[in-house]
Automatic annotation (TrEMBL):
Name recorded for this polypeptide: Aldo/keto reductase
Domain NADP-dependent oxidoreductase: 18-314
InterPro entries tied to this protein: AKR, AKR_Detox_Biosynth, NAD(P)_OxRdtase_dom_sf, NADP_OxRdtase_dom
SUPFAM superfamilies assigned: NAD(P)-linked oxidoreductase
Length: 317
């Protein structure tokens, strides 16, 4: 373990822990009590970065979206906001606020501010690209939220490198507040972003904040060939990796490194990701304190060169 300092997000003045706590499970597979315990333990374990979205958990029967933001807002009101906590949320997939039109972005931001109970959103993402809205309109709407003091910094999620570059160019040409980070799908068994997105991030001084860092649970080590079934909403997609020879090589390498270091496989997988070029923080969620305990070492775990190289080679496409 190491004394690891918080990292900056792009060129912003936001500094975050290596582990970003995902709020997608709050109000879905984690009720209020469990969510509060996870948030309490995360902060106590040195975490400073909580990520959610206005659409969490609209996909679940009987849910309307905004459940996660609401629970986080209640936790903040009950516990008091930690001084160094960075809050991120997103717009474009809430049933009442779909897309990235200017009016929708403004309305969704106001709704998120109310649910979270804060004066400003530290990091506001365009959650998914919206091909039906001109990029200039979206870029200007986000920039105006910064000017209004409702948002501190802007991020993009699930946008292609070409669309990210176009958004950044619009901001440069028109003097708008530009995104400082990108949230991509990236992990030991999904390294496609290294071809085009990582070079773009280097060029434009963007931070990457990967999601699905544990490959929907596969990289926790709980999925094994011939092993027992796992009770998880993502078990099907994670279990499918058991048919992939490269994924099994990664699992073997994780076992080796985790055994050598005496830490959970999940922490090893995320620690590898946290030290990839341009990555500032890695996103992972936990339904309860027991799951979170396997993730918290990431805040202080830096892999030695031998361990990192073993994982890099095992996961090479």
């Amino acid at each position: 373990m190491n004394d690891v300092k918080p990292r900056p997000l792009g060129d912003s003045d936001l500094y975050v822990s290596r582990l970003c706590l995902g709020g997608n499970v709050f109000g879905w597979t984690a009720d209020e009590s469990a969510s509060f315990r996870v948030l309490d333990d995360y902060v106590a374990g040195g975490g400073t970065f909580v990520d959610t979205a206005d659409s969490y958990s609209a996909w679940a029967p009987g849910h309307r979206g905004g459940e996660s933001e609401t629970l986080i807002g209640r936790w903040l009101a009950d516990r008091g906001r930690p001084e160094d906590l960075v809050l991120a949320t997103k717009v474009s997939r809430h049933p009442e606020f779909p897309g990235l039109s200017a009016g929708n972005v403004r309305a969704a931001a106001d709704a998120s501010l109310e649910r979270l109970g804060v004066d400003a959103i530290d990091l506001y993402y365009a959650h998914f690209d919206d091909p039906d809205t001109p990029l200039e309109e979206s870029a200007r709407a986000f920039s105006e939220l910064v000017d209004a003091g409702k948002v501190r910094y802007i991020g993009l999620s699930n946008h292609t490198p070409d669309r990210i570059r176009a958004w950044l160019d619009i901001c440069a040409d028109q003097g708008l507040h530009a995104p400082v980070c990108v949230q991509p799908h990236y992990n030991l068994v999904e390294r496609g972003v290294e071809d085009a997105l990582v070079p773009l991030a280097r060029e434009r001084r963007l931070s990457l904040l990967p999601y699905f860092g544990l490959a929907r649970g596969f990289l926790t080590g709980k999925y094994r060939p011939g092993g027992p079934s796992v009770d998880s909403p993502r078990a099907g997609s994670a279990g499918a990796l058991l048919e992939d020879e490269r994924a099994l090589r990664v699992l073997d390498a994780l076992d080796t490194v985790a055994g050598r270091l005496g830490v959970p496989q999940a922490a090893v997988a995320l620690a590898w990701l946290a030290d990839r070029p341009t990555v500032s923080s890695v996103l992972a969620s936990a339904r309860g304190p027991e799951q979170l305990a396997d993730l918290l070492p990431v805040n202080t775990l830096v892999l030695d060169a031998e361990s990192a190289d073993l994982l890099t080679e095992a996961s090479a496409p």
